[in-house]
Amino acid sequence: MCNKYVIKILLVVLLLFHVTLSVHSAVSMPGEDGEVLLAVDEYDRVKMKRLMFYTAEGRGFGVRFTAPSGHFRITSVLVFGTYHYWGSSYKFKAADNVFTVEVRDSKLVLVESFEFRYGDFFKGYDSLFSTGIPRDAPMWVRIPVDVAVGSRVFYVIVYPNAEFMPFVNSTYYGLYVGTDMYWADGRYVYPSKSSSYIFREGLVNKSVKFNFLIRVEGVVVPVYSVRVSTENLPSDFVLLVKNETSSFQLRGGESLRVDALDGSSFTVDEFVYGDKVRYHCVNPTQVVRKSRDIVFRFYPEYQVSVTTSPEDVLNYEEIRVNGSGYGRAFTGWFGEDDLVRVEAPYLVEGEGVKYIFSDFSIGFKDNVIEFRVKEPVDIIAEYRVQYYIEVVSEHGSASGSGWYDKGSEAEIKISRVYISIDEGSRYAFSSWEPLGLSDPVCKISVNGPMRIEAKWVTQYRVTVTSPYGNLSVSDTWVNKGDDVEIELSSTYVSTGFLVGKSLSHWVDQHGNEYYGNPLKITVDEPLEIRAVWRDNYIQLYIFLAIIIVMVIGIFMLMRRFRGSRLPPPPPPPPPRRFQGESVGGDVSSLMVSEKGISREGMLEILTKKLLDKDLEGLASLLEDYKVKFRYDPKVLSLVLFISDIVGSLRAVGAPPKVNLSKLPNAGFVLGFLEGLIDCGAENELTYALLGKAYIDLGMYDKARWAVKRGLRFVSDPNSPIVLMLVAMKSALELGRS
User: Fold this and answer.
1) In the listed set 492, 507, 538, which residue is the last one of a domain according to the structure?
2) Same domain, 647 and 613
3) How many helices (H) and strands (E) does the chain have?
4) Contact by Cβ (8 Å): 506, 513
5) Which one, of 90, 91, 64, 81, lies nearest residue 12 by Cα?
6) What is the pLDDT of residue 22?
7) 683 with 611: CB under 8 angstroms?
8) Residue 108 phi, psi (nearest 5)
9) In terms of residue numbers, what domain contains 278?
């Protein structure tokens, strides 16, 4: 498999094909100070050959090592290499670029990871105009580390982190790591054995047939048996103890013997927390030096909290704990017998609010206290809260302003309810705002600062006079802009026999006239209203009119009395029975039957009977119409057609006998039936009559439509009308086929 990372690596190798290196003078061999050098490469044998170098992006070059002991501490990683940069513009970027060194155990679990700058260790060169790696560029560098491995087999991996150019297999800058593979006689020569791999993200990507020039220096670490315990930590606390190679839990008061590498350390958290108490470890990190006891020593610290009630006090002033100010609730930790000094402000004033110190919750009345810590303690500085109530008024004098305790009652009062402006105008107290209260003296509950204003309205005097009757209003005060309603109990007053006075209108002091009783006027100024009356002779006029009518009546009766003695008049001529067709048009619509029923009235009654679907009543009505309209040929044809179908429906199974096409005035009959549908007189009976008419006249498509519509109105599937519709439908379908 080839991916972009492998391709980039191989191309870099080919670019270095013609490089010949002589690095004998650049090698500084390890092995000093009793350290052990671990090397798996054959560099010492091939160092004068044309060596190959690798760089990569996203890949690491790893070597598998076997330590002389299961407990080995790596002190240095040695790498033979150099780095390049493509032109001077990348020189500093290359020097600042980092490479990564990882140490992993035999199962490839990460033990430690380090990052280092190129420029801190390797020598760089400009590759823009170079055809290969300069002879003096590669060198052995020692990279200091300090990591212990707990397995004999481990891996050291170097990630060059090169910066490749986009779309081409070349780099702007990168770290080249040497190998013990070289070019000779037109081919690659590999070492006798290989312990190197290419890694990706901590996993082996592939093995290679050569060795990367990466070595390790370290020391074999002795192992000691040590006893780990705690001092002054209660048994209900559990401690997590960590070592480079393991971790374990230790309960307070217990001890545990474990094996540890010389120079390794045991660490615990500096603080172990309980409920408002914690234990502070004075020696949370201890290094193993031969066989000795490891004791973690603790001392208790207690939580002290200080706040105020209410907490709003801290919006304006600070509380002080041991000389430091805090604008919010304080929480701190203090050792046993530590001295704590708490200072709370005595008086705190805000906008419309005042806080007065009362006492501390732990029983002290003074606003400054000192005590020694023996246990966790919560301290609350209690304050009495007062709010300022401001009472103002544009007119008169308002009282009640001042400071009041929270939850207490305040009395607000206005000295005068009315204040005169002039004889017809005044100010009147309306309400306390924003309370919405209208009483001039009120008690309110104090739950916050408040500005209360007395609101006033302007009132005008309205006086009303009348010489007669009783007035609903005679003298009153009305708010400016409001309406006043004036009403007289009576608008007529008798002043003699059949004569009197009646209300004419109203007039104000400016001569403006108003009409109506009751009278409604909008008041915008003081008003003086007067009722104006006039003479009334209506009753007298009515009396005279009655006398005149009586005289005329008596005269008419006398004439009738005299006329009853004359001979009787001759009898009237016999009435005309009917009118027929007149020349120039049809006048049958004016025809009247023998008993005075018009055609329009008859058709209206017939329509109602058809909608009721009362076959018995309909049959009786049609028989009556046959006699009454025997001289109206159009109505008679309509009656005969409908009567025939109604008779057929009454005698279930008997077919109709009358064919509309054989009757005179068939157009009138069809027009009446279609008119029923157009006027909304729709039911199964009207559609059955219309369907029969269409069939008789050979209009079969319309007949199918009428039958289909009629079946939609069926309410009783066993009625004779339904049977007739079904029979017509079957006949029409047979006729179509």
Assistant:
1) 538
2) yes
3) 11, 46
4) yes
5) 81
6) 29
7) yes
8) 65, 20
9) 223-292
Under 8 Å between Cβ of 573 and 609: no
User: Are 252 and 115 found together in one domain?
Assistant: no
Which range, of 192-196, 261-265, 471-475, 635-639, averages the lowest pLDDT?
261-265
CA atoms within 13 A on the CB side of 432: 23
Among 60, 102, 61, 90, CA closest to 170: 90
Beta strands 124-126 and 72-85: pairing type? Answer: parallel
Domain check: are 215 and 245 in the same one?
no
- What is the Cα–Cα distance from 210 to 193, expressed in whole angstroms? 7
- Does 665 share its domain with 526? no
Q: Left, alpha or beta for 263 (phi > 0: left; psi -120 to 50: alpha)?
A: left
The pair of structure tokens assigned to 703 is 């007949």
Beta bridge partners of 444: 410
Q: Does residue 645 lie in a domain region?
A: yes
**Which tokens is 306 given?**
């200080």
The conformation of residue 61, written as its DSSP 8-state character, comes to E
Tokens, residue 521: 């006027």
Burial of 276 (0-12, 13-18, 19+ CB in 10 A): middle
Which residue intervals of 158-281 are DSSP H helices? none
H or E element, residue 320: strand 319-321
| The two structure tokens encoding residue 514 | 């108003």
- Between the alpha carbon of residue 301 and those of residues 229, 281, 296, the distances in Å are 20, 11, 16
In whole angstroms, give the CA distance from residue 90 to residue 514.
Answer: 103
> Among residues 413, 467, 478, 468, which one has the least CA distance to residue 442?
413
Q: Say if residue 641 is in the same domain as residue 516.
A: no
CA torsion, ordered 369, 372, 373, 377, to nearest 10 deg: -20
Highest mean pLDDT: which of 77-81, 539-543, 668-672?
77-81
String of b and e for 479-492 (b: at least 16 CB within 10 Å)?
eeeeebebbbeebe
Q: What CA–CA distance (Å, rounded) separates 364 from 98?
A: 63
In terms of DSSP H, where are the helices of 564-652?
599-612, 615-628, 633-650
Q: Give a yes or no: residue 22 inside a domain.
A: yes
pLDDT band at 514 (very low <50, low <70, confident <90, very high): very high
Does residue 520 have a pLDDT over 80? yes
Average pLDDT estimate for 480-485: 93
| Helix, strand, coil content of the chain in percent (nearest 5) | 25, 40, 35
Q: Cα–Cα distance between 130 and 272 in angstroms, integer? A: 62
- In-domain check, residue 201: yes
What is the rounded CA–CA span in Å between residue 44 and residue 19?
Answer: 18
Together in a domain, 657 and 620: yes
- Give pLDDT, residue 614: 79
Residue 402 pairs in a beta bridge with: 389
> Which of residues 164, 190, 220 is at a domain's end?
220
Do the domain assignments include residue 363? no
Whether the model pTM is above 0.70: no
Same-domain pairing of 524 and 654? no
- SS3 category, 191: coil
Report how far residue 307's alpha carbon sits from residue 319's, in angstroms, rounded to the nearest whole number: 8
Q: 78 and 160 share a domain?
A: yes
Among 513, 464, 468, smallest CA distance to 484 is for: 464
- 682: exposed, middle or buried (Cβ count in 10 Å: 0-12, 13-18, 19+): middle
CB 197 within 8 A of CB 181: no
How far apart CA 253 and CA 274 sit, in angstroms, is 16
Number of structural domains the chain divides into: 4
Planar angle of CA 101, 103, 108, nearest 5 degrees = 125
Asked if residues 300 and 277 have their Cβ atoms less than 8 Å apart, the reply is yes
